[in-house]
Amino acid sequence: MSTPAPLVNGTRSGRREQILTAAAELFARHGFHGVGIDDIGAAVGISGPALYRHFRSKDAMLGEMLNSISHFLLGGGTARVQAAGDPDRALAALVEFHVGFALTHPSLITVQERNLTNLADTDRKQVRALQRRYVEVWVRAIRDAVPGVGEQQARSAAHAVFGLINSTPYNRHLDDTELAGLLRQLALGALRSLS
């Protein structure tokens, strides 16, 4: 059920998507401040200044990228919980979804992890609000699947599992199928051990 993450306003779209994908790879590899507009342009075969036809600035690219990731995670996580039918399946579906995203888009995980502080204030507030809502989807799912777990414990557990799953850009010792299985097993094992 792993779907490619939309990078552009919830839809996939030619040139803008290419630019955001290239920018994500470069930001992940060199850091936001280590990448210039000319670097991004070169990666997609156009001049740096030509990017301004698509984005008003490098900051706008980062803002759109991180907002889109956050919308994708919130929407995808919410949909999987609603479709699951019971608490155990909902928790497993959330883990599966997040593992799939992390393995498919390691550069986006890295950019999200390292560059929140580089966002403009408005974008940072929007991304933070979306991230909090995504965490709350997990908190509810954990508490429904593991009786007796308090809200703060569930929230801490969700963040710990994000840390585990989001470590995938730095953990390439196994192929994706094996790593996905291991991450699912570790995440669900840790969450179910809370009872």
For the record, give the distance between the C-alpha atoms at the N and C termini, rounded to a whole number.
Answer: 28 Å
Helix content: over 70%
- What is the averaged pLDDT score? 90
User: How would you spell out the order of helices and strands?
Assistant: HHHHHHHH
- Beta-strand percentage range: under 5%
**Which CATH architecture of the domain at 58-192?**
Orthogonal Bundle
CATH superfamily of the domain at 58-192: Tetracycline Repressor, domain 2
- Computed Rg: 17 Å
The secondary-structure class comes to mainly alpha
Give the uncertain stretches in residue-range form.
none
How do the helices and strands line up, and which of them pair or pack?
Blueprint: H1 14-30, H2 37-44, H3 58-84, H4 87-104, H5 106-115, H6 121-145, H7 151-165, H8 176-192
Helix pairs in contact: 1-2, 1-5, 3-4, 3-5, 3-6, 4-6, 4-8, 6-7, 7-8
Describe the model.
The protein is mainly alpha-helical and 195 residues long. It has a domain at 58-192: Tetracycline Repressor, domain 2 (Orthogonal Bundle), CATH 1.10.357.10. It is 70% helix and 0% strand. The chain has eight helices and no strands. Helix 1 crosses helix 2 and helix 7 packs antiparallel against helix 8. The protein is elongated.
Task: Based on the model shown, name its key terms.
single chain; 195 residues; mainly alpha; Tetracycline Repressor, domain 2
